[in-house]
Structure formats: structure tokens, C-alpha cells
Amino acid sequence: WRTFYNHMLDLNSADLALVIGKTSEKQQISSLFRRAKYLYEFPEFPDWGDEIDGMYNDSGWKQYILPYANEKWGTFGGIANKRGSGAVIFMIRQFVAKFLQEYGLLEKYDRFVLSRSDHYYSCDHDLSLLDNKYMWVPRGEDYKNGITDRHLICNKDQILKALHIYPPIFKYPEKYASQKFATLNPEQLIRLRWEQENLWQWVRRFDRVMFTCAVEGDETRWTEKSNSKVKEGVFLKYTYEYEEATCICKTGTCDFPYTKRKMRLGYPQHG
């Protein structure tokens, strides 16, 4: 996480909040926990559908949503043994929203960065270069004209709407019960919800300076890591991210075909 500290946290004088599944004491000795100003832990669920039932005091959504929960895309992965991690990703966003409100952080901070702990930063991620009135997302990894779910920068007026991907689906499931809905992958679902919340007009893109990585022993719900390490000493999850970040940080500009379907290193493509 040294690159995260140097090229992101310290550069932007940012405070770190960890919203993370409950971990063992051994895991909590990592430097991330020492650097975190805020810590919000949530339980891991064998079936995330049970947590959704509790959150909305109703399990009626299952009769509408589950028949259209396409396993191919993993949009509801983590529910009823379905493949992928979509439910995990979007429920964690609900925990983030809860955390921000419970800790009163919307009144304390005017900008938020929602990201992953497995990002390697190849060079500086300078937030001062990105206008705070917009929502900023790195280019690429949009999968079928959606919007990537791995990194988001937005202001305090946008953050809660941006996080609330699942709530209307489970509050009004009958509105989403359709074959068209079944074809949506997580990236397309995010775009749909942002359009519904009138956020899409504020979305802007920036050149990627980070890539997702893995180390020995890391486990994943969706993407397998590469067979070998790159020169930075880590394994890759998405080759295209690495190629883009490396090019941008080395030359300052790169011409990438962002709509092109991409191959992951040593594994079949998806999305």
C-alpha cells in the first residue's frame, strides 16, 4: 500500500476510512489499519440475500428479482449461491453510505473517493486537477457501455445518490422485474441508476494511474490473478488497466481503444 500512501493519501492530504468486513486481529496489524482515521466493520454473510431481507424488512423482492438474476454477469453474485460479487459490491456501498451518515462526515468533508484496497498507483493521483463539481471515474473497464465500479471521486452532494445502487431495486422490485433487467452487468446497472438519479450528466473521465493487483495468497470472488508477477512485484487482475496506467505515467498520454473488449492476462475475456 506504499504507492497508495505516496501517490494518493499523502499527496492530497486525505484522511483514510476503511469500510471492511470484520477481520482477525492478525489482519488488523496491516499498515492500512494504522493509517485509517476511521474504521467501519461489517459482518460477512454466507448469503447476502439474508442481509437484504433484514435491511428492508421484507423478502418479497426475491420472487421478482431472483428469476432475472443472470449468473453470467454476477450482478447479484453472493445471493443464493449465485456466481460473482455484485451483491457484495453494492451492499458494501450501502454500508459506506450508512457510515458516512452515522459519523457525520457529509458535514466534515466536501469530497469523497470510493476505491479499492488492491489498487497499485503507478504515479500521482492529484485530485486538485479534477473539478469538484463533477463525478470523476477512470477511463476504461466499462463493459458493454456501462461505467467501471472500481474508483469514484465525487462531492458531498453526489456521494449518497452515487452509492445507492440497490435500494430502489429492493424497495420496488416489481419495477425491475424484466428480461431487459436480467441482461445488465454491474457496470451497466451503475450507469442505469446514475441516469435515474440525474447524476450521469456530471460524470467525467480521467486517465487511469492505478491498476488492481494481487499478492501471494490473495483470494477473489470473480477475477483470477495473472500467472506471473510484473516488474512492480505484484500479480495483475486486469492486464488492460496495467498497460494503460503504465503508459499514462510514463508518457502522460496514450491512445487506447476504450470500447474494445479486453483480455485479462492468461484468462478468457468477459463483459
Can you offer a commentary on this structure?
By secondary structure, the protein is of the alpha/beta class. It has helices spanning about 1-10, 30-35, 50-55, 60-65, 85-100, 105-110, 160-165, 165-170, 180, 185-195, 240-250, and strands at about 15-20, 40, 110-115, 120, 135-140, 150-155, 205, 210-215, 235. Helix content is about 30%, strand content about 15%. The model is unreliable at about 260-270 (pLDDT under 50). The strands form four sheets. Strands 4-8-9 form a three-stranded antiparallel beta sheet. A two-stranded parallel sheet has the order 1-2. The chain has a two-stranded antiparallel sheet with strand order 3-6. The protein has eleven helices and nine strands. Helix 2 links the parallel strand 1 (about 15-20) and strand 2 (about 40).
Report a brief summary of the structure.
With 271 residues, the chain is of the alpha/beta class. It has helices spanning 2-9, 31-35, 48-56, 61-65, 86-102, 105-108, 159-163, 167-171, 179-182, 186-196, 239-251, and strands spanning 17-21, 38-42, 111-114, 119-121, 135-138, 152-155, 203-206, 210-214, 235-236.
